[in-house]
C-alpha cells in the first residue's frame, strides 16, 4: 500500500529498526532518518542510497505516524514513494477508524471490515503486477497507520476474519461511501460499467445523519478558473443549469452558460473538477446569486454500494452485518478466504 506519494522529504525512525538497501545489504544510520529524492536514488541523512527497506519488531514512525509491517522507500517521478507491506487483517484494524467510528454499533463495524477486506482483495488481484495494490487515501481506502487501532476495531475484524463478499464465485468490487442521501447509485452512472450487485437501492436510513445535507457558495470566477484548468472551454461564466436526473435523483449533467455560448459537463466530472469535498455528491441544486453559485445538496460520496451512515442506522435498528451487506449488495453472499 502506498502511504505517501510524491513527498518532498520524509522522516523515519523507530526502535530496533533493521535497514537494508535495494540489494538487501544492511545499512547503518543514526536516527531519525531524513530521506529525500536525488537524481538517481535517495539521499538518506545526506548519504546516497538507491532505495531503502525498513522493518521493526512492533512499528516504526513515518513523519510522526506509526505504521506496522515492512516499509519500502524509493524515488518516484516526483519526490519519494513510501510503500507499506503488512498483513491484510492488521491493515483492516487500522482502517476502521479512518473510514467510520469503531464506536458505532458493532454490526456496522463488522460490515465495514468485510467490505474493506473485499475491496482490498479485489484490488490486490487487479493490480498484482504493480508496485503497490492500494493507496491510503480516498482514491482507495483511507488508512493512517496503527495509531488508529482500538479494541472495537480489533473485535470487528476478528469476528469476521477472512470473510469477503462474492458474486458468482468472485470477490466483488465492494465500493462504499459516507451517505447516499436516500438512494444508492448504480455503478454505471458513475464509472460507466454496470454490475448487478451495484444497481442502487432505496435507503432512508441515512436521512437522520448530520452529514446528509450540505450547502456551498462558490464564486463564478473561481468555478470558471477550475473548469478552464481542467480543459472545459468556459469564458465569462454566467449561469449553471441543472440537467436531467437519473432514477436515484442524482444529476446526470449540467449546462455551463458563458459569454461564448453553452457547454455540457457530466455531473460526475463537474464534482471531480470542483472537488469531492466541495461538491459532496451529484444530488444537488444550483442557483446563481450575484457573482456566486449557490449549491445545496444531499449525500456525501459517489453513492455506489454500501451507505456507511445507512449501515450505522440499520445496525442500530437490530440488523446484523449479513443483513446489512446483502441489502446494499443484492445477490452477493459471504465466503471465508485465507488472508495469510
Write structural notes for this entry.
The chain has 340 residues and is an alpha+beta fold. The chain has helices at 88-99, 106-126, 151-158, 188-191, 220-229, 267-274, 308-316, 321-328; strands at residues 2-7, 9-13, 18-21, 33-38, 41-44, 47-49, 52-55, 60-62, 65-67, 70-75, 80-85, 163-167, 170-171, 176-177, 213-219, 237-242, 253-258, 261-266, 284-289, 292-298, 306-307, 333-336. It has a six-stranded antiparallel sheet, with no helix packed on it. A hairpin with a 4-residue loop joins strand 10 (70-75) and strand 11 (80-85). Helix 2 runs antiparallel to helix 7 (308-316). 41% of the residues are buried. The mean pLDDT is 95.
Quick synopsis:
The chain has 340 residues and is of the alpha+beta class. 24% of the residues lie in helices and 30% in strands.
Top keywords for this entry?
single chain; 340 residues; alpha+beta; six-stranded antiparallel beta sheet; five-stranded antiparallel beta sheet; 24% helix; globular
Instruction: Identify the quaternary structure here.
Output: single chain
Strand content: 25-35%
Overall geometry comes to: globular
* Alpha carbon gap, first and last residue: 16 Å
Q: What topology emerges from the helices and strands here?
A:
Elements: E1 2-7, E2 9-13, E3 18-21, E4 33-38, E5 41-44, E6 47-49, E7 52-55, E8 60-62, E9 65-67, E10 70-75, E11 80-85, H1 88-99, H2 106-126, H3 151-158, E12 163-167, E13 170-171, E14 176-177, H4 188-191, E15 213-219, H5 220-229, E16 237-242, E17 253-258, E18 261-266, H6 267-274, E19 284-289, E20 292-298, E21 306-307, H7 308-316, H8 321-328, E22 333-336
Parallel strand pairs: 14-21
Antiparallel strand pairs: 1-11, 2-4, 2-8, 3-7, 4-5, 5-6, 7-10, 8-9, 10-11, 12-13, 12-22, 15-20, 16-17, 17-18, 19-20
Amino acid at each position: 500500500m502506498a502511504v505517501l506519494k510524491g513527498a518532498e522529504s520524509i522522516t523515519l525512525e523507530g526502535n530496533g529498526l533493521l535497514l537494508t538497501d535495494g540489494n538487501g545489504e544492511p545499512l547503518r544510520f543514526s536516527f531519525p532518518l531524513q530521506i529525500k529524492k536525488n537524481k538517481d536514488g535517495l539521499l538518506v541523512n545526506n548519504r546516497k542510497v538507491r532505495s531503502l527497506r525498513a522493518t521493526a519488531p512492533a512499528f516504526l514512525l513515518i513523519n510522526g505516524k506509526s505504521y506496522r509491517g515492512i516499509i519500502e522507500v524509493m524515488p518516484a517521478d516526483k519526490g519519494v514513494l513510501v510503500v507499506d507491506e503488512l498483513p491484510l487483517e492488521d491493515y483492516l484494524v487500522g482502517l476502521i477508524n479512518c473510514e467510520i467510528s469503531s464506536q458505532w454499533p458493532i454490526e456496522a463495524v463488522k460490515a465495514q471490515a468485510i467490505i474493506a477486506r473485499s475491496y482490498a482483495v479485489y484490488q490486490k488481484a487487479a493490480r498484482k503486477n504493480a508496485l503497490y495494490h492500494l493507496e491510503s487515501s480516498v482514491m482507495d481506502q483511507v488508512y493512517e497507520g496503527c495509531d488508529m487501532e482500538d479494541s472495537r476495531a480489533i473485535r470487528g475484524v476478528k469476528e469476521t476474519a477472512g470473510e469477503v463478499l462474492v458474486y458468482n464465485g468472485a470477490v466483488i468490487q465492494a465500493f462504499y461511501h459516507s451517505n447516499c442521501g436516500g438512494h444508492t447509485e448504480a455503478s454505471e452512472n458513475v464509472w460507466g460499467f454496470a454490475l448487478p450487485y451495484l444497481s442502487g437501492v432505496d435507503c432512508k436510513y441515512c436521512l437522520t445523519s448530520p452529514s446528509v445535507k450540505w450547502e456551498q457558495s462558490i464564486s463564478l470566477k473561481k468555478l470558471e478558473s477550475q473548469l478552464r484548468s481542467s480543459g472545459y472551454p468556459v469564458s465569462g461564466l454566467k449561469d449553471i443549469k441543472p440537467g436531467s436526473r437519473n432514477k436515484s435523483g442524482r444529476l446526470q449533467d449540467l449546462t455551463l452558460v458563458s459569454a461564448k455560448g453553452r457547454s455540457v459537463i457530466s455531473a460526475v466530472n463537474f464534482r471531480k473538477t470542483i472537488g469531492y469535498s466541495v461538491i459532496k455528491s451529484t444530488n444537488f441544486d444550483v442557483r446563481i446569486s450575484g457573482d456566486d453559485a449557490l449549491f445545496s445538496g444531499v449525500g456525501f460520496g459517489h453513492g455506489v454500494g454500501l451507505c456507511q451512515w445507512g449501515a450505522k442506522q440499520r445496525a442500530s435498528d437490530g440488523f446484523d452485518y449479513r443483513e446489512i451487506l446483502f441489502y446494499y449488495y443484492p445477490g452477493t453472499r459471504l465466503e471465508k478466504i485465507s488472508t495469510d
